[in-house]
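Dear colleague,

As promised, here are the two records you asked about, laid out in our usual form so they can be pasted straight into your sheet.

NAME FIELD: protein one
SEQUENCE, THEN STRUCTURE:
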Amino acid sequence: MMPATPLYIICSPRPQVGKTLLARLLAEFLLLKNGNVTAFDVNLKEPSLLDYLPKVTETADVIDTYGKMQLMDRVIVDDGLAKVIDLGFHAFDEFFKMTDEIGLLKEAARRHVAPMILFVADTDRVSARAHEMLRQQIPRVNLIIVDNEFIIRGELPPAMAGGRLFRLPALPGFLKTYIDRLNFSFTGYLRQEKDSSTELHQWIRRNYLAFRELELSLILQRS
């Protein structure tokens, strides 16, 4: 039993860094483990999370006050249902400006909601500035740096390497193309593929186990 309702915010100020892939993986893991999840797609381009998981995903925007308040009203609620926000790069600055203004972390704690910000790292200046902004705004325990090895081919920038890390192993190009199909399901593959030694089977299981560790850390930090 989770001590608070988890809220996962997956973000990057850069496009094409694997953010929606991570959101898909996490949403499918939560759906498998809990039987339900609600995901919010804040993206401009297709394919997006809504295209992959239409049954559990709804669109959201943060371009005006109404959209921002609608989203916050849905995610800052202790109903035991895990929430996942796939935050498009175009909305990064506006979203975190809003969360700083409303005091998201304090309000979430008051309402028994546990936000976790999963920042997908990159080596460019835009990512460096965005990470520094988050580091000043978000407590270390709530900020997780995602090292997508398909994007970061070497070491993480030193400023990002010292915090909490989530490593997303790289897949060969042909498998990346395979999982990018709109009708592909990670959980469906685990159930249908009898050979558990395949690279994709092990990759999915490794990531699901890593998500479980993330959940356990949430339980421990709030116990």
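NAME FIELD: protein two
SEQUENCE, THEN STRUCTURE:
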Amino acid sequence: MEIIKSVKNSRVKTWQKLQTKKGRQASQTYLLDGWHLVQEAINHEGKLHALMGTAEQLAEHQEELPLGVPVFEITDEIAKKLSDLVTPQGIFAEVSLPTATREPQFIHDGAWLFLDGIQDPGNVGTMVRTADAAGFAGVVFGQGSVDPYSPKALRAMQGSQFHLVTTTGDLAKWTASFTQNGMNVYGTQLDPQAADVFTIPAQTQFALIMGNEGQGMQPELAGMTTQNLYIPITGQAESLNVAVAAGVAMFSLKAR
């Protein structure tokens, strides 16, 4: 086990770059911050490149660390450099990004969540975690959606990216492929033709599109769906947060 004490160490500088989308794309890896996320990667066969932790954290989790993965002991000062939290836990892992973009023509099974231009990383992470909880097969991040492997999004996911498929793609192609293969694709939009989500029978194979926080779905996608849906609001609020709305729709539509 190598011990690193300087924040200027080349490895530390490389790991710091994983806090940015550019750095993640260059290395095709991302950084997990905190034992729960590291443990999820270990337990669900995430491809780990390195484990980094303070002496205290490595000692605490010594028996749970996987064999064959390089382990680096770091200082509290380095831990603060690697985390965007004020008080980091002090244990990290460098993990591979998903290796390839999935093609829609090969996937026509289960329930899928399509994210169209979702901008807030907390919303993205929450929706992935909720899709996992609702028993969805996967999540497709469309053009304009925020990087789901940013630190804030990862904290909101809580490791759910290891439990279902996550991929990027052209949502128009995904929608067309699903509908051509007899699967319903539902959008969420307030328009005169939209149906109450609670009137739609629960099912096992379909896709649900959630649109941008402010603008909703792209008009092109809205015109391609099987049916657009709305969530009836009986109180005084004008609308729901997109992640909350996604949760309501996913649990309403997904047959158990």
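A couple of things worth noting about protein two: The chain has ten helices and twelve strands. The chain has a mean pLDDT of 94.

Best,
R.
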